[in-house]
Automatic annotation (TrEMBL):
Gene3D superfamilies for the chain: TolB, C-terminal domain
Signal sequence segment: 1-15
Name the record gives this protein: Yellow-x
Source species: Diatraea saccharalis (sugarcane borer)
UniProt-listed InterPro entries: 6-blade_b-propeller_TolB-like (IPR011042), MRJP/yellow-related (IPR017996)
Gene Ontology terms: cellular component: extracellular region
PANTHER family linked: PROTEIN YELLOW-LIKE PROTEIN, PROTEIN YELLOW-RELATED
Length: 445
């Protein structure tokens, strides 16, 4: 035990020295400002008659349409519109990056036809997406709609859908998840990060109430498996109660947010990355190395990865979405505090957390983040607590997108390290951070 503590101390010192000597100064930051806001969400309809037809048949119920996820590519912001309630005509859409209107209408993506309810070749329930560095969009389609109604409808199998945006054809490749890792009645594909190494991997949170876990998908052979750990992936009673601006709600939700850190060298000179995650109803942030999740032989038994999971510590409040930038800075919301926070992952989590925005009027339930190619971060704020309680008022602003300049890009553009011995390979100071994580994992096992 003493030797491991000594190793952790040395590793911490090495990581700090690396931070002090090689990391560039933080870029100038701007305050977050509102760029888009809506009372209700409307769409670009084929014709006024189509809108009226949807309204008259309850296929479009404005107060039931909520923005959740966000991502950037080209000239567009892609928004996810999960079909939690009836009356959501499209579940994935775009708005322009360049602001023309403060409340733009959403354009269904890839098309209206590709969002038709009940067609398993079309998108049914998209909670989140990711766009990797190669221009491939990774879409989580739960297949089950009406998750906040009395009778959720499992119309189609939970699937991963891929679209090559660079081609411009917007053709969808659908890969249903096998039944041993996803259940049409209980699976809830929540968030995703993409690791463009070794044939492309995705790490996906499933906050199923009965079988939470991280689904790992390997694109090279389209194989997927599920990693489970009740201790770190489940909600806890003391964090299931939320109170925002006088409104209280109880949401015992399991593993939710997920983020992917930069590459680093391990003790044996291999390249790895750290996956960060947290349940919605928890104050803790957890970490595990991507190499552990990639090991499909580790087994799906609950707790099989527990010796490798690190409890990094607690946050001031619960977190829904979070996103890593290309330099290893994690952005996340603190729901109960109406706060946006950040953490430089080269600094100890207990002392490195920093509030960068707080406003009880404008920051009411931070959901998801994205980065553009100009050094800006965007945040979706959607007052989810009102939506869940069916208390959406169409006379108030319910959905906002905030923007701030950070000078960085998404984690998908983080530096690609070269294996040891390859010309141009990075030096080994980053070894300190990986050793620290390894030592802590053993200490906490």
């Amino acid at each position: 035990m003493l030797s491991l503590l000594f190793l952790a101390a040395i590793a911490a010192a090495a990581a700090q020295n690396d931070t002090q000597t090689s990391r560039p100064p933080s870029p100038r930051r701007e305050q977050f400002r509102v760029i888009y806001e809506w009372n209700v969400i409307d769409f670009e309809w084929p014709s006024p008659g189509d809108r009226e037809a949807y309204l008259s048949t309850n296929r479009y119920i404005p107060q039931n349409v909520l923005i959740s996820g966000i991502n950037f590519y080209g000239e567009n912001l892609f928004l996810t519109v999960p079909r939690m309630m009836d009356g959501v005509p499209a579940t994935l859409a775009t708005i322009p990056v360049q602001q023309i209107d403060t409340a733009p209408k959403l354009k269904p993506f890839p098309s209206w036809e590709d969002n038709v309810l009940g067609n398993c070749s079309a998108l049914q329930f998209v909670q989140n997406i990711e766009i990797d560095k190669n221009g491939v969009m990774w879409i989580l389609d739960n297949g089950r709609v009406g998750t906040l109604t009395q009778k959720p409808d499992p119309k189609c199998p939970p699937s991963l859908v891929l679209i090559d945006l660079k081609s411009g054809k917007n053709e969808m490749e659908r890969i249903p998840f096998p039944p041993e890792i996803s259940n049409m009645n209980t699976t809830y594909l929540n968030d995703i990060v993409v690791d463009n190494r070794d044939g492309d991997y995705a790490y996906i949170t499933d906050n199923s109430a009965v079988d939470p876990g991280i689904i790992v998908f390997r694109r090279s052979d389209k194989k997927s498996w599920k990693v489970r750990d009740t201790k770190s992936m489940s909600s806890v009673p003391e964090a299931s109660a939320f109170r925002i601006n006088g409104t209280s709600i109880n949401l015992p939700v399991n593993i939710d947010g997920i983020a992917l850190g930069p590459q680093f060298f391990t003790a044996d000179d291999k390249i790895d990355r750290t996956v960060y995650y947290c349940p919605l109803s928890s104050y803790h942030l957890y970490a595990v190395n991507a190499s552990v999740l990639r090991n499909d032989s580790i087994g799906s038994t609950d707790g099989a990865i527990r010796p490798y999971v690190v409890d990094l510590g607690t946050k001031a409040s619960q977190t829904d979405g979070m996103k890593m930038d290309s330099t290893g800075v994690l952005f996340y919301g603190l729901i109960g505090n109406s706060t946006i926070a950040e953490w430089n992952t080269t600094v100890d989590f207990h002392v490195g957390q920093r509030t960068i925005a707080r406003d009880p009027n404008y920051i009411q339930w931070v959901d998801r983040f994205t980065f553009d190619d100009r050094g800006n971060v965007y945040v979706v704020v959607n007052r989810l607590y009102n939506f869940v309680k069916n208390q959406v008022s169409t006379s108030e602003v319910n959905y906002r997108i905030l923007k701030s300049h950070t000078g960085t890009k998404s984690y998908v553009y983080a530096e690609d390290l070269k294996p040891a011995g390859v010309p141009g390979a990075a030096a080994a100071p980053t070894l300190g951070a990986s050793l620290l994580l390894l030592a802590l994992a053993h200490l906490l096992a």
